[in-house]
Amino acid sequence: MNRIAVRAAIHIAAVFAIYLSVAMLLPAAVDLYYGNDDWRSFAFTALFMGGLSLAIALATQGRTPPANTRFGFLLVNFLWLTLAIAGAVPFMTSSLQLSVTDAFFESVSGITTTGSTVISGLDTAPPGVLIWRSLLNYMGGLGVIALGLFLLPFLNIGGVSYFKIESSDIEDRPFERFQTFTVSLIGIYTTLVVTCAFAYAAAGMTGFDAVNHAMATLATGGMSTSDTSFMRYAGEPAILWIGTTFMFIGSLPFSIMILFAVRGRLDALRDPQIRIFAGYYVVFAVAVAVYLSVRTGMPFFMTLSHTAFNFMSIISTTGFASDDYALWGPFAVACIFVATFLGGCSGSTTGGIKAYRFLILFELLANGLRRLIYPNTVTPVRYGDRSVPPEMQSAVVLFIASFFVIWGIGTILMAATGLDLVTSMTGVLTALTNVGPGLGPIIGPVGNFASLPDAAKWICSAAMLLGRLEILAVLVIFTPTFWGR
User: Fold this and answer.
1) Mutual orientation of helices 355-373 and 272-296 as an angle, nearest 10°?
2) What's the pLDDT tens digit per position in 295-309?
3) Of 200, 256, 316, 385, which sees the most CB atoms within 10 A?
4) Is the pTM of this model over 0.90?
5) Under DSSP, is residue 383 helix (H, G, I), strand (E, B) or coil?
């Protein structure tokens, strides 16, 4: 990796940091509107970060390196790390005065759309801080979609290629120009957020809460304006079903949504990963609803409202909670634990292992078992009606193997900080899958990460970034081969 590539990556990251500093003016305006003195800290931070980022951008101008996989990996890492660092500064300068560790954790959680938090007292927190957390989710959700659609698939690690598999016709590209596609993506994403906000408000949320929760819902980010998340709406099924619907939408491939919305391509909805994702979600939600209804005697519709919302929140890696599902009983908790691994579709705002990987993995397993009986048979691995190229098959296996290795190492490191096994295991798991809450009394749906040791918070922050960048995009830059000629 030469200096030109590093310089160019820093330059691009600094330009994006300028955009982020401009976004800080919105929470400043919100605080000013509500008469909160925090507007000064946001305004100062915006000017400081904007000036610093501009200086770095000007200092690193130069020749653009050729586009290749090494530069792509480097750029992805620089971008997300820079945005996480820049996003942390307002948390330190606000009236909350979070420590460096807590501010970085909160920022990483927001920008990776994880939804874990170290802030207690959200119900009385400054409105600017609340809107900033939601904005990080909103911007992170857009970044995740762009990452999943444009860059990681072409680096052969992070999903199915938009032009090869997610489109129902390889030759029929919905947009020939990247700019047109990007504008359409932002337009549809923002329209869905606005629609979600109006729906929440119509169902009974205040305008401020509706806007915040809408940004976090579509981004499947889970940042709430209350310590109790959606538990304060537990008796309002309409709000829960609105949240469930828009979390489901956020879990779908946005490329296919654009094909459907702009071109009216109904065939685009036949993507196999959508069926897999919807299938395991419905099975979990209905099975646990029946279990709870029989176990507690609650009306089935109410239990279904809560299981549909909470399982969609977990599988979509959003992190909202309408009830303390850790108290639902062993069967339900076991289902929740398994659901934490799953994730939504490629090219969505979700994290986790994702449906398309399970589809390819089971195809590989079936072919492997078939070859035990017929050693000479040659059967292609298929994704719908298309053959999956060998490099994508390898990427799926490599990702899943790396996922469990990182999870194991992270669990041991968390336990070394003095945490119990459940907190250690589920803390790293929820960070890697970008889900948000874990299990146990400390980081469960009614807890948060505030009481964890600083070392544990840094481990979780690293795991959140690893999970958001599909693990391999981070690991590769630590190999000697990457930095060789």
Assistant:
1) 100
2) 988 999 999 999 999
3) 316
4) yes
5) strand
